[in-house]
Amino acid sequence: MKKIVSVILCAVLALSCTVFVFASDADDSFGEYEHVFIIGIDGAGAMFGREDLNTPNFDRIFADNACRHDAVTEYITTSAQNWGSILTGLSYDVHGFTNDSTASEKNTSASSNHTVFYYVRQAVPDAELVSFCHWSNINKGIIESDIGVKKVNRGTDPLVVDMIVDYFSSGNAPKLMFVQLDSVDHAAHTYGGFSDEYYAAVEKADVYLGDIYDAIYAQGLMDNSLFIVVADHGETAGGHGGQTKEESSAVLAVAGHSVNAAELGEGVHNRDVSAITLHALGIEQPEAFVSSVPADLFGDSREKTTDPNPMPERLREWRIFFYDFVRMVNILLSLFD
Question: pLDDT, tens digit, for every residue of 33-42?
Fold first, then answer.
């Protein structure tokens, strides 16, 4: 009985995804960008943009662009579950990545858990793809090991940032780059999520963010690039993994030449990064995605296409509601195993 219910719900969800894929790809922002840079700040939650924290680089980068300070995370607020969803466009229920599994098992192109790197590689075989991470689980167990992604692991955020600055100063221009900085999460685990040390780590991460952005800008790449900042989860005084507002809220900010200066809608998830990335690069979104391009993300100044009917906001909200409903049904059904 459980299997039958799950199959029916998944089929309806897939149909809703298909409807959105069609609507999204008709948008005239499809394929506007040559490069996408995703900067992930582990454990930062909704800290960026707070008036009581000094984050001048975040503020200047996204002053005229789109942001959601409290995007929804996966229902398990730990790192692998959320970085997995951010990079695959799948829910944790589907991809199943955990901190333990990503530490011990490589992900390959033979898996059904494809990341955005896989789809970019399929669409652009000679694309330069790179991932710089402090937490090595992402490069080992989430991003595929056999699709030619240049992977760099370094044990501190300063070393990661130095490598990125050197990489761009050498003239590199990747089609897709992912970065994971970990010191904010480390501060929370060491001192607590409401500690002065945690807030100081957020402000220091803002310095790193400015260094990365300026290195890209100095190479003249920002004119045709999308720059994204996202967190996997937030923190509490006792850590993370639960369902509090602090843990399950995450920043999602997007900067680019056609991005609106707007607060994104309440239905935005941190996993929407995957759909935004493929959309910006002009790559069709797979039907398996439960990730979508937020409504009103891209501005009205771009050249219009002949399609006057973008996806209605109400339909998009229904799709998000239905996904959350499916997730809860599966949780309830699992209690009867």
Answer: 999 999 999 9
